[in-house]
Every structure is written in structure tokens, then in C-alpha cells.
Amino acid sequence: MSRYIELHPVNPQARLVTKVVDRLRNGELIAYPTDSGYALACAPGNKEGLERIRTIRQLDSKHNFTFVCADFAQVGPLAIVGNNAFRLIKRLTPGPWTFILKGTKEVPRMTLNPKKHTLGVRIPDHVIAQALVKEFGAPILSSTLIRPGQTIPESNGWEIEDALGHLIDVVIEGPVTSTEPTTVIDLTEDVPEVAREGAGDISLL
User: Fold this and answer.
1) 63-67, 89-93, 173-177, 185-189: lowest mean pLDDT where?
2) 1 pLDDT higher than 80
3) Which Gene3D superfamilies match (predicted)?
4) If I label 62, which of 90, 111, 121, 195 is the partner at 20 to 30 A Cα–Cα?
5) Which residues have a Cβ under 8 Å from the Cβ of 202 and sit 6 or more positions away?
6) Concatenated DSSP letters for 70-119?
7) Distance between CA 66 and CA 72 in Å, rounded?
8) Nearest 5°: CA angle at 188, between 131 and 82?
């Protein structure tokens, strides 16, 4: 069974945040709340964690994994960002958006789309998610927790614990801002393309 941890939605307990991040660094898999439902996360170089996410979500090799960042400064080393993409990301973040971009050579190849060499980047507007990434000190590798056969993310930690606790090392209990997944914007070309409409308001594009 997983370790079930409740974090305060406004002032996450620093001691507990540190314990969760220590487990991320030790190769474990966590489920945590965001501004667009729950997500799974592991450390970026964690191959086993990556495969566990694929198994839980039944993902194929074409899936774009997302690097969750604390701020825009953490995006630069990960992705190739043109001027138009830069302005759009700065305007929309933090918020419930995932941006598909070409990865840089610094990104582990196993986390990139094998044909397009793309990845997702995201800067959430959520206290608990931000606390975890800031304590980790670098982006964390993440994927929205949408179970096979479902179209919306999980939104309750206790339900994740009951159903998937045997597959996840840490489940964090905390509120989500929206039960919709992120809006996904493909920025690999000059014109932004909406790949999935979700919690981010596309009228802002």
C-alpha cells in the first residue's frame, strides 16, 4: 500500500513536503493534486517510474510526458522556445495549460516522443504542486492521472488510494482547482494548435 499524506491546501507543511520530495529522489512514484485534477510524478531520470506511469495509464510510446516547472526559468533548459511561444507561455502561466515543444539535448531521450522528440511543459497555479517542485529544485516528470477508459482526471486522493494505492508509493490528499485536464497547446510550429481542450480557456489564445 502507498503512504497517504494530507497536505494543507494553503500552507503545505514543509516537513511533509520534504518527505514526499525525498521519496521522489529515491525513485518512488507519487500522485498529487494540481489545478487540473490529479497527476502522477517521478524524478526525470527514473526509468522505472516512467514505465510505472505507462502501465497505470496504459500509455503508448507516442505519449508526451510533461515536465512540471515552478516557473518559466525552468523551461529554458528543457525545450526549444521561439519568440511567439515565449510570449504565449509567459501570458498564460501559471495555469492549467500544457505546452508541447521540441526538447533540448539535455532532456533524457526516454522522456521524449520517440519520433517527434517533443515533450510537454507546464507551470501549474496550485500551491501543493508548486511546493513540491520548488522543494525538488528542478522540474518533475508528470502525467495527468486519467485511468484507462476514463476522460477526466482523478480528483480525490482517497479514491486514488483505494483504487491504485498498491501501484503508487505516495498519495497526497489535497483539493484540485478543476476536474478537467489541462488544455494542451502544440507550439512546435509557428501557429499554436489546440491539441486538447480542457481547463485552460482557449478564448485567451
Assistant:
1) 63-67
2) no
3) DHBP synthase
4) 90
5) 183, 194
6) SSGGGTTTTEE--HHHHHHHHHH-SSSEEEEEEEPTTS-GGGS-TTT-EE
7) 14
8) 75
d(CA 88, CA 187): 9
In single-letter form, the type of residue at position 87 comes to R
Task: Please give the helix or strand (H or E) that residue 40 lies within, else none.
Answer: strand 37-42
Q: Quick one: how many helices (H) and strands (E) in the chain?
A: 5, 11
Cell of 125: 497555479
C-beta separation of 57 from 146 below 8 A: yes
- By CB atoms closer than 10 A (0-12, 13-18, 19+), residue 62 is exposed
Residue type, 56: I
pLDDT, one tens digit per residue, over 130-163 is: 999 999 999 999 999 999 999 999 999 999 999 9
Nearest to 138 by CA among 54, 63, 78: 78
Q: Which amino acid is at 166?
A: H
Task: Assess whether the previous peptide bond of 148 is cis (omega < 30° from 0).
Answer: no
